[in-house]
Amino acid sequence: MKMSRRARLGDLERAIMDRLWAIDPPTPEAAMSVREIHDSLSQERDIAYTTVMTVLDRLTKKGLVTRERDGRAWRYLPQSTSEELTAHLLRDSLDHIDTSDRRAAMLHFLDSASADEIDDLKAALAELESRQA
Amino acid sequence: MPLPMLSALLTVAGLLLLAVVLIWPVQRAMIRRHVFRREPLLALLVWQAVSLAAVVSLLAAGPVAVFLMRGLLDQPQHRVVAYIALAITAYMLVRLAVAGHRVGASLRRTRREHRALLELVGREFDALDQHRPQSLRVIDHPTPTAYCVPGVRNRVVISTGMLAKLGGPEVAAVLAHERSHVRARHDLLVEFFTVLHTAMPEPLRHDDVLAEVHLLAEVLADRAAARLVGPVPMGRALVALASSPHPTATLGAGGNGSASAAQVRLSLLTESGKRDWALAAAMSTYALVVLVLPVALIGIIGSR
Lengths: 133, 304
Hints:
The complex is a heterodimer. Chain A is of the alpha+beta class. Chain A is 51% helix and 12% strand.
C-alpha cells in the first residue's frame, strides 16, 4: 500500500525516534550521528541520507531531539524518554477536558468520576446485569 | 408615530426578546428536562435548533428593520431605528465569527499537535480484532484512559492501563464507543453547538448547557456500543473506569448533588433498545416550532 507523503514522514520520524530511544544509556558519548542513524534505517528501507538529515532537523525544531556538534557532524539524542513523552501526551489530552471552548478537542470515554459515587454506580450496574440476564 | 416605524420597532424588540427567552429561560428549563436524554440524537438537534433560532433572531434584526422602513430612511428618526437594528446584527455577526474562529482554530490546532505526538509514542495494535477501529493507537501508560481525537485523520487512543483493567468484552465496548464518535462525527455536532452557544453574550448563556450537549454525545456513543456488544459490557466498562484512580477526579461533574455523567449514562443503558416514538415526535415538533419562531414573528408583527 502506498503511503501519503505525510504518513511517510510521520512513519520516518517515528522510526528515527525509536532508534534514538534505543540508545542505552542516553549519554552525550552515545549520541548518534546522522550517518549512524541512516545506516541503521537503511537496513530496512530505501532512504536517502539527506532525507534523514531533513527529518532530524525538523525533530530538532520541534524540540523532540537535541544535538551537539562533533567536528563537522551533528550528534543527536532524544530530548525526553518515550515514557516522559507518553505522560506528556496523556496530560495534554486531559488538559483539554474542561476549557469550555475546547471541550470537544478530544472526546474521552469517561472524563469525570468521583470516589463517593462508586457504590451507586455498582448498584446500578448490578440492576442492569440482572435485567439482561 | 408612522406605522412602518412602529412595526419595525416592535419586530426588532420581539426578535431581541425571543433570543433572550430562548437562551435564558428556555435553555435553563431544558437542562432540567432529563427526558430528552432518552433520544440523544434528537436532543442534540433540539439544542442546536434553540441556539440557532436565537442567533438567527439577532442576525435578522437589522435587515428586517431596514426592509420594513424602506422608502422612509431619508428621515432621521427612521434612520436611528435602522442603525440600532443594524448594530444588533453586526454585533451578532462579529461574535459569531469570533466564536467560530476561536473554537474551530483552537480545536484543530490542539488536535494536530496531539496527533503528531501520538504518532511518535502510540503503538498500532492488532491483537484486538473485533470492532477495532483502523486508527487505533495504544499508549504505554498505567492510567486507564480511552479517548478519540476526532477529525478526518481521526485516532482512537487506549492506554495499556485500560487494557489491563478491562476484560475483552469491555475493551470491545470502549472501542465501539470511540469508533462511534469518530464515525458519526459527534464532534461536529458538539462543535457547531459550541460556536452558536459561545456567540451568545456571556451574562445570558449558561455553560451547563455545554456539559449537557457533551453528555448527549456520550450517550449516543454508549448506545451505538451497546448495540454492538450489548449493554452489560458497556456498563461494566463505565463502572470499571469510574472506580479506578483517575487524574481528572477533581473535575467531577456530580459535585453539586446532581447525578454524575457516569450515573446518567449507566441508567440510560438500561433503557436502550426501546424507542419512544411519542417522545421523538414531540421533540421533532418542538425543534421545528422553535426554528420557525423568528420567521413567524417577523411575518406576524412585520406585516401589520
